[in-house]
Design a protein that fits this description.
The chain is α+β, with helices and mostly antiparallel strands. It contains eight helices and eight strands; from the N terminus they run H-H-H-H-E-E-E-H-E-H-E-H-H-E-E-E.
C-alpha cells in the first residue's frame, strides 16, 4: 500500500473500483437481460439498484472504518473484504439473472412476460427444441396454444389459479407467427393509448413517427409484465410485433 495512502483515499479508491465492476454488470443487465422498457416495467431497475447500493457502499465503508496505514494484517483484511464483496455481487447478479425476462408470450388476447425462474422446469423436456432452453440474450416473442384435451385444460386452470398460466409451460409454445393473425384481430387501435395515458401523448407521437407515422397501420395488445403492465405495438394487418412501450394498456 503506498505510503501516502489515507483511509479516505483508500475508501475512495475502493469506491471507484466497485463502481467500475458494478457498471460492467449494469451494461449486461440493461442492454441484454432487461432491455427497455423492461428495465423499468419488469422491475430490473429496482433489483439492480439494491444490488448496486449494497455492493458499492458496504465495501468502501468497511475499508474506511478498518484502514490504518501500517496496521498489522491490513492486507489480509482488505482481501477478505474484497472476496466477500465479490461474493455478494455474484449472488446478487445471479438473483437478477434468474429473474430476467425470458419469453414474451402471446396467449388468447394479451402477452405475458415470463421470467426465467417462472418457467416450469419439468415442462422443458416435452417442449420443442427451440423452447427447451431459456434464452440468455434477452426475451424472445413466442405464442402459446391452450391445450384442447379437457383434462389438460383443467390442469392448466388449476395451475393458473396458483399463478402459473399456460404461458409458463414451454410444451405449449409455438412460433408467434402461427398466432400473429389472431393477435392482430384482437388488438386495439393504437390511438386508444392516448385515452389510457393522458399527458403522455408526446411519447406516443414519437413512437408512431419512428414506426412510419401512419397510426392506421398500428395496433396494440397489453403485456402483463409483473410490476407494471406495458403495451406491445403490432402491425395492425399482420400482427407483427414492432415495439414494446412503457404505456398503460388498460383503462384503470
Amino acid at each position: 500500500m503506498p505510503g501516502g495512502m489515507t483511509r479516505f483515499r483508500a475508501a475512495a479508491t475502493h469506491f471507484g473500483l466497485s463502481m467500475l465492476v458494478v457498471g460492467t454488470v449494469f451494461l449486461l443487465v440493461y442492454f441484454v437481460w432487461y432491455p427497455e422498457p423492461l428495465f423499468r416495467g419488469a422491475g430490473g431497475r429496482d433489483l439492480f439498484l439494491v444490488l448496486a447500493l449494497v455492493d458499492v457502499t458496504i465495501g468502501p465503508l468497511i475499508t474506511l472504518v478498518i484502514f490504518k496505514p501500517g496496521k498489522p494484517g491490513l492486507k489480509f483484511d482488505l482481501v477478505v473484504i474484497a472476496v466477500l464483496q465479490l461474493a455478494a455481487l455474484a449472488y446478487g447478479s445471479y438473483v437478477v439473472f434468474e429473474a430476467r425476462p425470458a419469453w414474451i408470450v402471446y396467449l388468447r388476447d394479451r402477452f405475458d412476460l415470463v421470467r426465467a425462474n417462472q418457467v416450469m422446469v419439468e415442462e422443458k423436456a416435452p417442449a420443442k427444441p427451440q423452447y427447451a432452453r431459456t434464452p440468455l440474450s434477452g426475451p424472445q416473442v413466442v405464442g402459446a396454444r391452450v391445450p384442447t384435451d379437457p383434462d389438460e385444460r383443467f390442469r392448466m386452470m388449476v395451475s393458473g389459479l396458483a399463478g402459473a398460466d399456460v404461458s409458463s409451460y414451454p410444451r405449449y409454445f409455438v412460433p408467434y407467427e402461427e398466432l400473429a393473425a389472431e393477435a392482430a384481430a384482437k388488438a386495439k387501435p393504437i390511438r386508444t393509448l392516448r385515452t389510457y395515458n393522458p399527458g403522455r401523448e408526446g411519447e406516443l407521437a414519437t413512437v408512431v413517427a419512428k414506426l412510419g407515422g401512419d397510426e392506421s397501420r398500428l395496433a396494440f395488445l397489453p403485456l402483463r409484465a409483473g410490476k407494471t403492465d406495458l403495451s406491445v405495438v403490432l402491425e395492425a394487418k399482420t400482427g407483427k410485433v414492432l415495439a414494446v412501450l412503457d404505456l398503460r394498456p388498460w383503462q384503470y
